[in-house]
Task: inverse folding
């Protein structure tokens, strides 16, 4: 089985690793994009430290909004298990992403068994023109505010809950208010791809208001589970989330400067390491930037100096991934174990071939 | 390889070795002086104190809540190498890598993360595995989880509760059990806002006292070496000394450890109804031989409070500085992250003084432990300064003279002359922690011990002496020289491994499937998930 | 003495951190020391000498002949003197300024005037997103001084502003004045979606209706005409605007009622 190519030519893994390491070592402004499990992330960040690279996730934008909520505001959050067992009011904030429909369906099919008295009620804040059918024959009541969009709707909802004036009231507000008054543990589900940072901050303001007298919280269902896992690993390893750089020898976090897609578009990067065991493919090779790809592929990637075939985490090999369903990192056993190498193993090999400077930190 | 540390002043209270001599290491173990007397390498330790590696029993160094704190505060620790003095948490040991290095430089070789949420055990161990050099251990949190509270409510047999505790400790790879504001996190989910020892969690009808006593008994009967580690109710509140006193009384002859007692050392005297009650608590501890405590010393400056006491953190959210916080309702405890700046004002002075009074008035160094509850009272990087306060009364009096006089008027600190001796420091930070945690292989320099050794160049400046070790050996590897890291290595997490009871595993399987719709396997993991060689080291339970 | 002048040799090969090059930072340094300062943010690690030819010696008056969107942190934390850039700049121009005058003759990138405390920053071209706004994790926006953009500004202009004046003359993007705590934002040429979102106090003065207004803003009576008139006069005499902005009877919207609700957005009927 071929797992490495230099250009279009099959080669030995060892030779490809050496070549990638040499290119990386010679580069002046390397950038990494990844979409991989915790160990792939750990190996990528360790390599970035070694070579002075900046790094980001392939789904960087939605994750950056969720990260900004944490860095700029914080807030109140709840574990998914508690939502299933306690939440008697569920408000879906913005459009429900495909990836999280299954959990919402599960919530529609189950009843809270701790403290709740009422059956679970569902609301949809903002979102498109249609209501939302949840399965089990249940529908979410829409809370919307004319053309105001999600941000405007949450703002109006918060103002009305506080008894302040608004120019356009939220539809079905009295129903929401009545439900809120009797609910024991309302939970708002939010997603970075459906709401901008200010709207998420407004949501947390609403929660702060509610929690003065009663309880409520928010469930973070991330824009990308893999990306949130990578965010956590980056944070413990460097102190900072994604969009961090080691170019100056110490970790620097700057969500604008180290937005890797921006760095590539601006021609700042001379080396792009693309790591994805999923379906995403690297964007077209731009200018003089040299590209090395780790992907689940059976052929070399066009334009790449070096291509490595890797297995998918949790499918080809055991993995550790973030799960939105448990709200933490879980161990996953390979369900179709194969000989394909993991991203982590390739990245570690490349790091071993970078001429010694500092000791490898991990 | 045979290593000789020559002519140092050895301080090894466990083996009664005090005075000048040589220490020999073969590979990773301390050995008797070999007959040959020939070493492969020799380090001259003349003019130095030689002690076992230090052990920190309570420091929040990794896991979900710690990581959330990092995420919440990027501006507090940016550019930590370019402009170290410019940012408040720049010396806090913020990433996993810095944590290991900064501890090692001070001669610490084993650190316990005291608040691991069982469901996040894998996350916690992955973080700990990325902390270089030192060994780690965790305490698993129980006491706000529905499974335990339901068992207590339903009068489950002590045996069944022990099986559950044993399964939790084994599956999460913990070294002990901690209970944090027992019942309060569960009650907070039902909108209860204050919670004391005899308050009852509404849905369960179970009191906080009952939870503590149940877990204390289970831990004791299972032979878990470390007694139940208790974070009491009413942390930080004026008058919380009453709660701590009641909890000490509740030990009733069975071992119990009270965490960060300083945060309960408050009475209600004075104009502001907030005063040091440390002297009273110290007296109670002195009279209760089954009780051990750690301090949780406060030092002034910016820090962040990280606690699984979600109710307390929620009520403290208004004091956040800078003004942001995270409150998390978790499966059991959850937690809260509230950044905070300790100011040398009236309140800060009371807290600072109360911690030092406890250190100095509790007479038995085997029962008082050296902590700042990192980072809750202060980052662990203040340890050198704190050692100086304990060993030099002029140093602490000098600081006291700049603080709130009215706060100190309610404290006994000014009247205390005691200065810790190096032997007492060795007991408090080496011998006693090893004994408390059941780690026979460390905390001393006898033959057979793990070769965790710290060598400090003697000097008048205690903070400098103990802040930058001259030499540190971890498992016989030289890792620090002249206060700088010379070698990276990967430590292990120390864990217990009581055998699982099949009936409780089946019950837990059913419970997770019915209540959470999830397989129990989602919350367990194989050692291989850590992806390091031998990530764990087993410690035996008491026979 | 002639202004200390940095003439760009060629387009910079990497992003530069120009924060060391301020009047107070360069005072007393000789030419060789200045040339050795590292500016490069990648492993190229360019120095001042690699990037610029230096002439003149008056560090109290700095001139950059030629600019680039890769010039980050121009005049960071400046306290006195003048800095003029004859060209574009990148991110964080005038970040944390406390005094003196910074003039950007071209366009500025994001976070221009971030967390300014004092002094005057004038951008002749356009500014990127987050004008005057804090960086990730910080809670303090602009807290004093005057920031003028003669061209357009991007989204989140004046985010978390607490004090001072920001004027944008050719329109701005969405969420201008978000999370304002106090201070004044003036925008002519149109504002994007939902200005003043989450504002607690402060004033946003517009020359026309914004693209949209959050429903948590409510029209509330006549504005304080004395304030409007004084503001208009100030803007004209300071040479920020050519003619009065608000006219005789502006509308006043109070908000953000989702937050404290003591802020206001004014624009002519």
Result:
């Amino acid at each position: 089985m071929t797992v490495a190519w230099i250009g279009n030519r099959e080669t030995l893994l060892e030779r490809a690793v050496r070549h990638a390491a040499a290119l990386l070592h010679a580069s002046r402004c390397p950038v990494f994009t990844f979409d991989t499990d915790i160990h792939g992330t750990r190996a990528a960040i360790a390599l970035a430290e070694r070579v002075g690279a900046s790094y980001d996730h392939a789904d960087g934008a939605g994750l950056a909004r969720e990260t900004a909520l944490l860095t700029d505001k914080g807030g109140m959050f709840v574990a998914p298990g508690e939502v299933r067992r306690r939440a008697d009011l569920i408000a879906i904030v913005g459009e429900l992403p495909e990836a999280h429909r299954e959990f919402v369906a599960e919530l529609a099919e189950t009843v809270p068994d701790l403290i709740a008295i009422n059956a679970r009620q569902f609301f949809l804040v903002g979102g498109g023109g249609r209501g939302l059918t949840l399965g089990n024959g249940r529908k979410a009541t829409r809370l919307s505010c004319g053309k105001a969009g999600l941000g405007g709707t949450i703002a109006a909802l918060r103002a009305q809950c506080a008894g302040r004036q608004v120019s356009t009231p939220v539809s079905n507000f009295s129903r929401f208010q009545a439900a809120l008054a009797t609910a024991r543990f309302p939970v708002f589900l939010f997603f970075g791809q459906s709401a901008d940072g200010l709207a998420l901050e407004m949501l947390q303001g609403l929660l702060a208001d509610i929690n003065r007298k009663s309880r409520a919280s928010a469930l973070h269902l991330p824009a990308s589970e893999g990306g949130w896992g990578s965010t956590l690993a980056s944070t413990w390893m460097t102190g900072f989330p994604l969009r961090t750089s080691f170019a100056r020898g110490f970790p620097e976090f700057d969500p604008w400067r180290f937005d890797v897609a921006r760095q590539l578009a601006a021609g700042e990067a001379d080396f792009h390491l693309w790591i994805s065991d999923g379906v995403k493919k690297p964007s077209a090779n731009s200018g003089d930037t040299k590209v090395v790809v780790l992907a689940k592929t059976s052929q070399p990637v066009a334009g790449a100096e070096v291509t490595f075939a890797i297995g998918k985490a949790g499918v080809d090999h055991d993995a550790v991934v973030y799960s939105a369903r448990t709200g933490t990192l879980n161990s996953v056993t390979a369900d179709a174990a194969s000989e394909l190498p993991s991203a982590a193993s390739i990245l570690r090999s490349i790091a071993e071939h970078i001429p010694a400077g500092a000791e490898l930190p991990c | 390889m045979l290593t000789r540390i020559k002519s140092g002043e050895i301080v090894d209270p466990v083996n009664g070795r005090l005075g000048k001599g040589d220490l020999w290491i073969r590979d990773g173990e301390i050995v008797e002086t070999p007959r040959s007397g020939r070493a492969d390498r020799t380090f001259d330790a003349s003019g130095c104190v030689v002690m076992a590696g230090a052990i920190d029993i309570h420091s929040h160094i990794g896991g979900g809540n710690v990581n959330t704190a990092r995420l919440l505060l990027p501006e507090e620790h940016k550019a930590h190498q370019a402009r170290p003095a410019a940012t408040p948490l720049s010396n806090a040991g913020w990433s996993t890598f810095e944590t290991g290095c900064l501890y090692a430089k001070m001669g610490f070789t084993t650190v316990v993360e005291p608040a691991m949420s069982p469901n996040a055990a894998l996350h916690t161990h992955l973080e700990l595995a990325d902390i270089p050099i030192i060994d780690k251990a965790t305490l698993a949190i129980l006491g706000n989880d529905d499974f335990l509270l339901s068992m207590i409510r339903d009068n489950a047999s002590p045996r069944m509760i022990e099986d559950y505790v044993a399964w939790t400790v084994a599956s999460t790879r913990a070294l002990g059990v901690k209970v944090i504001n027992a019942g309060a996190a569960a009650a907070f989910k039902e909108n209860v806002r204050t919670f004391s020892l005899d308050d009852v969690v509404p849905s369960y009808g179970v009191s906080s006292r009952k939870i503590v006593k149940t877990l204390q008994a289970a831990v004791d009967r299972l032979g878990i070496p470390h007694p139940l580690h208790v974070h009491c109710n009413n942390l930080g509140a004026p008058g919380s000394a009453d709660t701590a006193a009641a909890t000490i009384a509740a030990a009733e002859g069975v071992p119990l450890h009270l965490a960060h007692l300083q945060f309960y050392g408050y009475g209600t005297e004075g104009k502001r109804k907030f005063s040091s009650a440390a002297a009273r608590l110290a007296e109670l501890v002195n009279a209760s031989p089954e009780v051990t405590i750690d301090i949780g010393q406060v030092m002034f400056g910016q820090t962040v409070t990280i606690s699984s006491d979600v109710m307390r953190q929620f009520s403290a959210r208004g004091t956040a500085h800078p003004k942001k916080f995270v409150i998390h309702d978790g499966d059991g405890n959850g937690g809260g992250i509230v950044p905070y700046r300790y100011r040398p004002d009236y309140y800060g002075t009371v807290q600072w003084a109360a911690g030092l009074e406890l250190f100095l008035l509790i007479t038995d160094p085997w029962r008082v432990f050296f902590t700042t509850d990192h980072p809750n009272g202060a980052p662990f990087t203040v340890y050198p300064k704190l050692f100086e306060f304990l060993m030099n009364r002029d140093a602490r009096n000098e600081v006291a003279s700049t603080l709130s006089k009215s706060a100190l008027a309610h404290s006994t600190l000014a009247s205390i002359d005691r200065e810790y001796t190096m032997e007492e420091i060795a007991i408090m930070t080496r011998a006693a922690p090893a004994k408390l945690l059941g780690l026979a292989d460390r905390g001393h320099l006898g033959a057979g011990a793990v070769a965790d050794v710290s060598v400090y160049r003697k000097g008048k400046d205690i903070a400098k002496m103990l802040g930058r070790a001259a030499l540190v050996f971890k498992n016989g590897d030289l890792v620090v020289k002249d206060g700088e890291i010379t070698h990276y290595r990967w430590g292990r997490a120390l864990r217990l491994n009581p055998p699982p009871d099949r009936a409780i595993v089946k019950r837990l399987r059913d419970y997770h499937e019915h209540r959470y719709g999830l397989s129990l396997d989602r919350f367990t993991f194989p050692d291989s998930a850590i992806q390091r060689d031998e990530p764990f080291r087993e410690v035996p339970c008491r026979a | 003495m002639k202004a200390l002048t940095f003439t760009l040799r060629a387009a910079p090969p990497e992003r530069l951190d120009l924060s060391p090059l301020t009047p107070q930072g360069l005072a007393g340094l000789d030419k060789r020391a200045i040339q050795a300062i590292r500016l490069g943010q990648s492993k190229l690690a360019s120095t001042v000498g690699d990037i610029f030819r230096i002439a003149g010696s008056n560090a109290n008056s700095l001139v950059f002949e030629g600019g680039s969107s890769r010039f980050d942190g121009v005049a960071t934390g400046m306290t006195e003197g003048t800095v003029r850039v004859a060209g574009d700049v990148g991110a964080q121009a005038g970040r944390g300024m406390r005094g003196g005058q910074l003039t950007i003759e071209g366009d500025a990138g994001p976070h221009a005037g971030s967390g300014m405390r004092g002094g005057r920053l004038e951008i002749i071209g356009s500014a990127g997103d987050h004008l005057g706004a804090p960086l990730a994790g910080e809670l303090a926006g602009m807290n004093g001084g005057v920031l003028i953009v003669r061209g357009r500004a991007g989204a989140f202009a004046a985010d978390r502003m607490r004090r001072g004046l920001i004027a944008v003359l050719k329109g701005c993007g969405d969420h201008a004045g978000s999370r304002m705590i106090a201070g004044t934002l003036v925008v002519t040429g149109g504002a994007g979606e939902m200005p003043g979102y989450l504002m607690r106090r402060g004033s946003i003065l517009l020359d026309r209706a914004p693209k949209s207004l959050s429903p948590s803003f409510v029209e509330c009576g006549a504005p304080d005409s004395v304030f409007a008139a004084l503001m208009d006069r100030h803007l004209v005499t300071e040479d920020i605007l050519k003619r009065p902005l608000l006219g005789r009877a502006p509308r006043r919207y109070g908000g953000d009622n989702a937050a404290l609700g003591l802020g206001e957005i004014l624009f002519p009927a």
Observations:
- Residues 168 and 187 of chain C are 5 Å apart (CA to CA).
